[in-house]
Amino acid sequence: EAQVTQNPRYLITVTGKKLTVTCSQNMNHEYMSWYRQDPGLGLRQIYYSMNVEVTDKGDVPEGYKVSRKEKRNFPLILESPSPNQTSLYFCASRPGQGSGANVLTFGAGSRLTVL
Amino acid sequence: QQPVQSPQAVILREGEDAVINCSSSKALYSVHWYRQKHGEAPVFLMILLKGGEQKGHEKISASFNEKKQQSSLYLTASQLSYSGTYFCGTVLLIQGAQKLVFGQGTRLTINP
């Protein structure tokens, strides 16, 4: 089944304890992206990657890091989490070219709470 | 840059119609619509390109008015399964690259 898989789905952590949210897609998509969803603010882009080894900042990149060493994986790293990073996080991917190039497929989401 | 959706929330009875609007202050390349059911991931509904075309998905259709920089989503004879949060995503050209920016969402509740 074509999908985007995120882990963990739920996480409670404490301020300053580094964590990584993994994202993997099995559709050979070139483009991958991370979003955070907060009430009243919709989906805001954190980072995106057009292809392997190519990443760029989105609208709210502060406090986050990403890497794209392989086409299928795009982990989100919080080096020193703070309470304002408590949010629902979505990873998404799309082909980048051809039919359906701009259609995003989202992962199930990762709910992060930072105490 | 974030498009503005209206209304923010709407409650309907099954069978009623709804319109969700999405407006941008910048020229749009295209508009995307996604639906997110409670506790689930957003799912793609449709893309509208320049030209004011209308598209449909089930009994859901949308229009895109390029000159007014806005799009509207029409839900006809709503069903219980239409409940969820609807997001529009506007595609802008920024420094030569296409950028997708989502609105804040419209929560639609359909009651029996």
Task: Walk me through what this model shows.
The complex is a heterodimer of chains A (115) and B (112). Chain A is mainly β and 115 residues long. Chain A is 0% helix and 50% strand. Chain A has strands spanning 4-7, 10-13, 19-25, 31-38, 42-51, 54-57, 65-66, 76-78, 87-94, 105-106, 110-114. In chain A, the strands form 2 sheets. In chain A, strands 2, 4, 5, 6, 9, 10 and 11 form a 7-stranded mixed sheet that branches. Chain A has a 4-stranded antiparallel sheet with strand order 1-3-8-7, with no helix packed on it. In chain A, strand 4 (31-38) and strand 5 form a beta hairpin. Chain A is globular. In chain B, the strands form 2 sheets. In chain B, strands 2, 4, 5, 9, 10 and 11 form a 6-stranded mixed sheet that branches. A 5-stranded antiparallel sheet of chain B has the order 1-3-8-7-6, with no helix packed on it. Chain B has strands at residues 4-6, 9-13, 18-23, 30-36, 42-49, 54-57, 60-65, 70-75, 84-94, 97-102, 106-111. Chain B is 0% helix and 61% strand. In chain B, a hairpin with a 2-residue loop joins strand 6 and strand 7 (60-65). With 112 residues, chain B is an all-beta fold. The A-B interface holds A 35, 40-45, 59, 90, 102-109 and B 1-2, 5, 8, 30, 32, 34, 40-44, 47, 87, 91, 98, 100-105.
Radius of gyration of chain A equals 13 Å
Gyration radius of chain B, in Å: 14 Å
Q: Cα distance, first to last residue of chain A?
A: 36 Å
Parts with pLDDT < 50 across at least 5 consecutive residues of chain B: none
- Total beta strand runs of chain A: 11
The averaged pLDDT of chain B comes out at: 89
Biggest pleated sheet of chain B: 6 strands, mixed
Report the order of strands and helices of chain A: EEEEEEEEEEE
Structural class of chain B: mainly beta
Strand tally of chain B is 11
Report the helical percentage of chain A.
Answer: under 10%
Q: Secondary-structure element order of chain B, as H and E?
A: EEEEEEEEEEE
Largest sheet of chain A: 7 strands, mixed
Q: How confident is the prediction overall: mean pLDDT of chain A?
A: 94
Principal-axis shape of chain A equals globular
